[in-house]
Structure formats: C-alpha cells, structure tokens
Amino acid sequence: MANNNITAKKAIITGVTGQDGSFLSELLLDKGYEVHGIIRRSSVDYRERIAHLEGKKNFHLHYADLGDSMSIMQVVSNVQPDEIYNLAAQSHVQVSFDTPEYTANVDATGVLRILEAVRLSGLSNKCRIYQASTSELYGKVEQVPQNEETPFHPYSPYAVAKLYAHWIMKEYREAYGMFCCCGILFNHESERRGETFVTRKITLAAARIAQHKQDKLYLGNLSSLRDWGYARDYVECMWLMLQQPEPEDYVIATGQQHSVREFCQLAFKNVGIELNFVGEGENEKGINRATGETIVEVSSDFYRPTDVVNLWGDPSKAIRQLGWNPARTSFEELVKIMTEADMAKVAIENASERVRTNLAEFLERGIVK
Predict the structure, then answer these.
(1) Catalytic residue among 14, 17, 103, 134
(2) pLDDT value of position 4
(3) pTM for the predicted model, two decimal places
(4) Which of 158, 172, 234, 250 is catalytic?
(5) Which of 34, 136, 189, 191 is flagged as catalytic?
(6) Has 33 been annotated as catalytic?
(7) 134 part of the active site
C-alpha cells in the first residue's frame, strides 16, 4: 500500500455509485489508490452504495456525464489519472429497447468521449483504460461456451451499443498505441445489485414472501441460462487486467451455467420455502410445497422482443494469464449472500413500518404530540 498521496496511483471510476463501482472503489482504496469517482447530478440521492466511502481521505467525487464531452475532458485533465475504469452505462437490457437512443449515446459514444479526453489531454502513454464489455455481445450465441474468439451477435440495443464501445477501444489501442482493454463480463450479481435486475428481484421477493409482505413473484423466461458470478470477485479481475505488461481483452466468467428457475429455487430454499415447478412456458408456476400456494408465475410482460437464452463463459485465459480464481464464491454462496442481505433488509423495513404505525396511533390517541 502506498504511504502517501504523492506516490499513490490515481484512478477514475465512472459508474462509481453502481454495484461494480462501489466494490472497485473499496478494492482500489485498500491498495492505496487515490480514487476519483464520476457522478451525475440528480435531485434524488442514489449514493447509498458509496456512502460509507465519502469522507475518506483518498476518495473524491466529481460531477460529469458520459453524454457531455466537456465535463469528461475537464475531469480527466484535472485528475491526470493513471487508470480509468469505465463502468458507467445504461445497463438494463429491457430498458434499452425503450430508450435505444439514450443507450447508444451513453454506452457507445460515451466511451469514445473518454478515449478522446485521454488522448487530447496528452495521457495516451500514461493512462490505462478498462472498458466494461458484456456477455450480451454474444447475443444469439454461435458457440457454447463463449470465449475471446467467439463471434459476436448482439441481440438488443444495449448489446449493439456495447459492441461499438468494444471495437472503438480496440481501434484506439491499435491506432494510437493506448493501453485499452475490455473485460467481457458475464452476469455478476451481489447484495448491491439494482432491484430491477432479475436476480435481485428474485431474492427480494423471496424475502418478502417469507415475511408475508408479498404474495407472488412474476418472472419472464424461467429457462434462460446464465453464467452468474459474484461482483466483488469480478472487480478484482478488472484491476488485474490493467496491471499486465500488454493490453488484452478477457472473458470474465465462472464457467458454470444455471437457469433462472434454478436461481429462483435456491433463493426460496434459503428463506425456508421449497418450490415445486409445474407446467411449461408461460403456464409454468412455482408452488410452495408446504402450503400448495402458487407463489411464482410467468408473465409475458417480462419477455424481451429478442431474448438471449444461453450465455456461458470460458474464463480459461483469465485463469491462465491473470491468475484469477472464478471459483472463489460459488453460485450457492452468491445466492445465499443475496438472500440473507434481503431478509435483513425486509426485516428492517418491517420494523420501521411498525414504528411508524405505532407513532401514528399514539398521535391519534394524543399519547405523544
């Protein structure tokens, strides 16, 4: 670890308020980095994932936006970073069908703005850049499992935008000799995952149903297959990629595959509910074995216009060249971490609700004023 700010490496993290950004900030601070996070101005406080880091000596926040080249240029020029980790994106696949232009502006052109800011600031030979690519690039998969040589076939506006970002990184690496690398990350989850993503939606619903705060969970394609890992493990791989002598792209995955149905069964099992799935397709249902109640149903509302159903990564190159261990956190451990966190979250919500109810009753009866 560095002893002072003079020798500390400087890193910029876009998307610092997200799941990956918060874990990466913790990792880099532990390694003695001076961390500069980029945030967007908002009237709503969305910084709960990094609240525990604010006020730390080597943690700084800057207002900027990937849609605004001048703001990106200003931060890069002022900080003079040794490393940039671009984790910012409109990262929800379903939402990208509703906002394709915004998704392209941030996920595609936003990466170009970062590259140009580095180049025009005279940092081409100093600053190393990591781009968060995605397994969604493989889309309508042409090879199973997928590795660094598998052809891309993006299947959503999100994936198409990410493909531009992936290739513009390679172009700047070859055209300008910049240290640019992409991590083709497969699905990685955690207790900090956004609540609109299917894994977190499942663990939250399991916790709420177990504590009698929700009746049913509605999902899309239960047979979709994904390679799920733990986000805390994956950010280490991002860092390792920027410590190599030469820039290369890597698939970051566990090499194991599970269905949405499996994730669902395990999450409910962790909260004491055994699920039995019956039926097929949109008629499939998850039934509580103990009570006979239907608590999981399929809804066509959650089917995508085009759906990727078989993502499965081959992390052999990362294991071999980076010394990374994709098995550090198992699938079962990941689901347990998430369900335990959401059980605690729902319990706190219930306690807060009881306090508010009691206070309202006391006010009504004139016990307190």
Answers:
(1) 134
(2) 47
(3) 0.91
(4) 158
(5) 136
(6) no
(7) yes
